[in-house]
Every structure is written in structure tokens, then in C-alpha cells.
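> forwarded from #structure-qc
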């Protein structure tokens, strides 16, 4: 059974950093293209970035040079490292597997002073 569980969200001040984790079970995360998305209250889901099976990454312009996606094959976990956070980064963040359209329950990130 495919399962994705995000964690690591929280409240952080503008300019701060967080690292989100997405623990996968039921499949090998390194064998699939994996995405991070986010959704703010009252807004549509927004693409954040992806990591391909061979390690290529792509990011939305809004997070380029601030966010980094990586994975640990040993822990079967996807990560989203976020730096220089802005108020507009406040959202629920989800990891997502393209194939089969699986996603986790999300983790809340709030950037506020």
C-alpha cells in the first residue's frame, strides 16, 4: 500500500528555515518522479518543485534558489529544504507521486513575525 507522510512544518519567522520530510512506504521513492506542492487558504494548489528518479530537480520561480528537494534512499524519504522563508510561503505542503497520483496529508508551514 502506497503511503506518504509529511512532517517538519511549523511556525517560523520571515528569513528563517525549515526542512520538511516525506516518508514513503509501499514503494521506493527513488524509483519515481516526486513532487512537492503547496496550498494556501483560499488559493489553488501551487507546484513547488520536483525530483526525478535520476536526481534532476526543477522549481517554481517563486522558490528558486531558496528551496531544495532531495531524498534519502536509505530512509526512503523525500525532503524539502526551505531557506529565507517569506510570509507568502505560508501554506500546507504536500509531497506527491506522479504515477498513480498519490499524496500525503500535508504539513502546515506558517511564516509570520
Amino acid at each position: 500500500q502506497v503511503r506518504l507522510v509529511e512532517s517538519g512544518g511549523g511556525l517560523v519567522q520571515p528569513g528563517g528555515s525549515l526542512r520538511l520530510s516525506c516518508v514513503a512506504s509501499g514503494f521506493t521513492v527513488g524509483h519515481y518522479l516526486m513532487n512537492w506542492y503547496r496550498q494556501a487558504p483560499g488559493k489553488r494548489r501551487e507546484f513547488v518543485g520536483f525530483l526525478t528518479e535520476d536526481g534532476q530537480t526543477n522549481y517554481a520561480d517563486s522558490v528558486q534558489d531558496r528551496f531544495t528537494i532531495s531524498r534519502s534512499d536509505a530512509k526512503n524519504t523525500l525532503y524539502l529544504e526551505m531557506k529565507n522563508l517569506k510570509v507568502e510561503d505560508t501554506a500546507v505542503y504536500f509531497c506527491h507521486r506522479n504515477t498513480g497520483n498519490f499524496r500525503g496529508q500535508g504539513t502546515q508551514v506558517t511564516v509570520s513575525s
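QC bot note: The first strand starts at residue 3 and ends at 7. The mean pLDDT is 97.
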